[in-house]
């Protein structure tokens, strides 16, 4: 069966996507920082009859990234890498004049440096796959200027560019940066705690990601809403 590595997989979009892949028979290597929540998620997904390896840790740790790829190798390789783990840089978000520089460094380290580090670690296995794919989870803040979203948006814009270049450098792979749109996640609640407006559940955008896997369009940046409209 195909094998996927998904970071930030204990809840939100990462868990929703992992559930959809497990239902399709994918074997999974899952990462998150909170061990107990990740363990519970893995137990649920294993109910689909697939092999699930849950490895708690921080993606900024090179040893942890190596551990994720080694676990995938033991399952058969890496057919899909989903860089979903994200850091905001400030909780709640802050205007640039007050954005803590240590927070910005953390956002860049998680959202950009660690994402590329995991790609580098997994690249030999993805090249060896007949269907090697990379998904980097982006944001509309990477392309639009929203007050207080500057640090997070800048890190996601950098991630988008890395994904675009990787797609050019690795024509044998499919590399997609995906903007999932608004979702009801813990990340958004931490970013804007005073915003009580209803938002779609992460599971509602998973079909957009599955469409990419099924149709394998050219590498590039995609928005989940447009992918869903095209179903």
Task: Give an overview in words.
With 231 residues, the protein is an alpha/beta fold. The chain is 47% helix and 15% strand. Strands 3-2-1-4-5-6-7 form a 7-stranded parallel sheet, with helices on both faces. The longest helix has 28 residues. The chain starts with a strand and ends with a helix. The model has no long low-confidence stretch (mean pLDDT 96).
Topology:
Elements: E1 3-6, H1 12-23, E2 27-32, H2 35-46, E3 52-56, H3 62-75, E4 80-83, H4 101-128, E5 133-137, H5 150-169, E6 174-179, H6 186-191, H7 206-215, E7 220-223, H8 224-229
Parallel strand pairs: 1-2, 1-4, 2-3, 4-5, 5-6, 6-7
Number of helices: 8
How many beta strands in the DSSP annotation? Answer: 7
Strand content: 5-15%
What is the makeup of the main sheet?
7 strands, parallel
First-residue to last-residue Cα separation: 26 Å
Chain-averaged pLDDT = 96
Strand neighbour order, sheet with most strands? 3-2-1-4-5-6-7
Overall body shape: globular
What is the gyration radius calculated from CA atoms?
16 Å
Low-pLDDT sequence parts: none
Order of helices and strands: EHEHEHEHEHEHHEH
């Amino acid at each position: 069966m195909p094998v996927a590595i998904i970071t930030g997989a204990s809840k939100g979009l990462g868990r929703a996507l992992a559930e959809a892949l497990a239902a399709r028979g994918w074997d999974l290597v899952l990462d998150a920082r909170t061990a107990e929540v990740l363990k519970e998620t893995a137990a649920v997904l294993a109910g689909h009859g697939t092999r699930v390896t849950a490895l708690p840790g921080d993606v900024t740790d090179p040893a942890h990234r190596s551990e994720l790829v080694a676990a995938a190798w033991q399952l058969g390789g890496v057919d899909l890498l989903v860089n979903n783990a994200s850091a905001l840089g400030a909780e709640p978000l802050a205007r640039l004049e007050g954005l803590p520089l240590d927070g910005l460094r953390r956002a860049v380290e998680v959202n950009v440096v660690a994402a590329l580090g995991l790609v580098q670690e997994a690249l030999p296995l993805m090249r060896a796959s007949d269907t090697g794919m990379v998904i980097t989870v982006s944001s509309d803040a990477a392309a639009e200027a929203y007050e207080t979203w500057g640090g997070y948006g800048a890190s996601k814009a950098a991630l988008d560019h890395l994904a675009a270049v990787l797609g050019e450098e690795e024509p044998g792979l499919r590399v997609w940066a995906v903007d999932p749109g608004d979702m009801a996640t813990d990340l958004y609640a931490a970013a804007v705690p005073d915003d009580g407006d209803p938002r779609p559940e992460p599971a509602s955008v998973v079909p957009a990601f599955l469409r990419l896997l099924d149709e394998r369009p050219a590498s590039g940046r995609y928005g989940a809403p447009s992918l869903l409209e095209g179903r």
